[in-house]
Give the backbone structure.
Amino acid sequence: MIHILTPDVYNRIAAGEVVDRPYSVVKELVENAVDAGATEISVEIESGGKKSIRVSDNGCGIARDDLPRAYSPHATSKLEKAEDLFSVSTLGFRGEAIASIASVSRMCIVSKTAEGEAFSLSCEGGKLGEVSPAGGANGTLVTVEDLFYNTPARLKFLKSDAQEEGDVSNMMARFLLSRPNISFTYTVNGKVKYRSFGDGLPAAIAAVYGTDVLHNCYELNADKHGIALRGFIGNQNFSKANRSYQSLFVNGRYVVNQTVSAAIANAYGAYLMKRQYPFYVLFLDVPAEIVDVNVHPNKADVRFADNQVIYGSVYSVISAVLDGNSRALEYLANVPAPTAAPTPPHVPTSPQTEMSYEQAKKELAFDVSPVGGSSYFPPARSEFTPNVLEVREPAPAPQTDYFEENRKFLAERNKKAAQERLDPATLVYKGELFRTYLFYEAGDCAYLIDQHAAHERLIYDRLREKCEKRAVVSQPMLMPFVLTVNPQEFAFLEKQFPLLTELGFEIGEFGGTSVKVSAVPVELQGIDLNAFFGEVLASMESLRAVKLADILKDKLASAACKAAVKGGERLTEDEARALVEQTEGNMGLKCPHGRPIAVKVKKTELEKLFKRIV
C-alpha cells in the first residue's frame, strides 16, 4: 500500500539533505540574508550551534502576510518559473531551507520591511504558531534553538561542540571572503571571533587569515576567453599543510570543484613538495547559461558546460603568473598596461560565449601543458551530464590464507633475528677504523659497528619508551611558541591537547584560533615546532585520526641523531665495550633512519679476497 507522507515527515527527510549539521543551518540563513540585500549581518552561536544560532540582518525583511509562507516547503521569492533555473543569480533558490530547519528545531523569525511594522512567527518541530507584533529594526532576525531535539538519532551523530564550532567558523570565514562588501560580525559563546567592515577583499582576507598572508600573495584580475578570474593566490614559496586555506567562489557561490582544483594544483605542480597545498581565494565569474548550480543538495558544487575551457583558462592564467612569463602582466592586478586600460571583466551573451569557446579550444590545444603534478585534463562537455567512469570488474584473485602467510613471516623474522644476536661477552674488541667504525671479532666472523648509528638507535629506543609510557619530563621554553591557525585547524588541534600534554608539551588556547606552547619534552629541546605542527595539521588531509606517535618518531630520531656520538670522535675501549653491551648483541638493529648498525664479514669472505680460497 502506498502512503502519502505528511509534511512533518517529508520535511524531516528533506532536512537530512539540506540541514545535517549546525554549519549548514548557518550557511542557509546567511545566504538568505545576503539574498535579501543586507549590508550588515550578525551571526551568534552557542555550544557549537547545537544550543542556539542567531542570524540578524538589515535586508529587505519579510512582510507580515509572507511570514507563514516562509515556513512552507518549496516557498521562495527567488524563482517563479522553470526557466529561471538556467540563470540563477541568488545563493538560495529552492525554498527548502526554512521548512527543513524548522522541522528539526525550535525556530523563530522576527522581521520588518521598510514600509511595515515588525512581526514574529515561531515554529516548533514543524508546528506553526501565530503571527504576532514584535519590536525590531528593518531586516530579519532568525533564531534556531535545540537543533535536532526531536530527532535524537541525528543528534547523536553531531560532533563535539569544538568541532561543530570549527566547521561553523570555517563557513563564516568563507562568507567574509565571498562578500567583502558586507559587514559581518561573528560571535561564539559571547566572544567576537570574526569582524569585517565591508571595505574590500584585502581587508576581508586580513580579518580571516591575518595581514601577513597578503604579503605572500599575487593579486589576479584576469579575463580569459570571457571567463573572469580574480582574487589572491599564494606565491611560489607560500604553501599550507592542508586544503582548508583554499576558497573558490563561482559566480559568488562557495564551491569545491574538481575541474578548477585540478587546474590550480597542476599550475603549482613544479613549485610545491609532496603534501603541500597552495593558498588561494579566487572568484571565477562565468556566464550563467554555461554553469549549472542545481546539482548538489547543499549547492556545494557546480557543473560547467565545458570543463576543458574552464580548466585551460584557469591553468593558463595561474601558471603564467607563477612562471613569470610575459602574459603575467595581463593577469596581475594593479599592473599598468603598456596600452589602453583593459575593459573590466564582463559576462558575454550566448553568441559571444559560443565564439569564445571555439576560440578557446583552439588556443588551449597549445596553451595548456601541465608541469608536474597530475595530468588530469577533463573532457569537453556540450551539455550538463554527469561524469561517468567505466568500471570493470577485476578478475577474481586466488584466495590467500593471510594469517598463515603472516605466521610464516613472523617465524622467519624471529629466526633471522636470533641468528643475528650474539652474546656481547663473545665479542673481542680489536680496535677502531677511521674513528667511526668499531672492530670486533667473534668466532670465524668480524663485525664492523658504526658507533654513531648504534648509539643513535639506543638513544632513540630510550626516548620512544619514555614517550610510550608517558614518563617524559617537560622543559619550559624561554619564549612561548604561538601558532595561529584557521578555525578548522584549531578544532582539530584542540582534540590533540590531552595527548600532547601527556607527551610532555604544555599547550593551550591563546585567544581566537591561536595556540600557545610553553614547554616541550626535555628530550626534544630545539624541536622545530613549525615543522612539527605542520605535520600534525597535514594529517587533516587524510581524513583519519592523527597518530602523534608516528609524527614524533621522526622528531625523536632527529633528537637521537644530535645526541649520539659522532663519526670521527674517538671512543676508549671501555666506552666501545659499554656501547656494544647496550645493544645486547643484536647485530640486526638499524638506526632510526634505516641504516644498519653493524656489518658482518665472514673469515671465508676475507680469504676469497686474498685468493686463499676460490
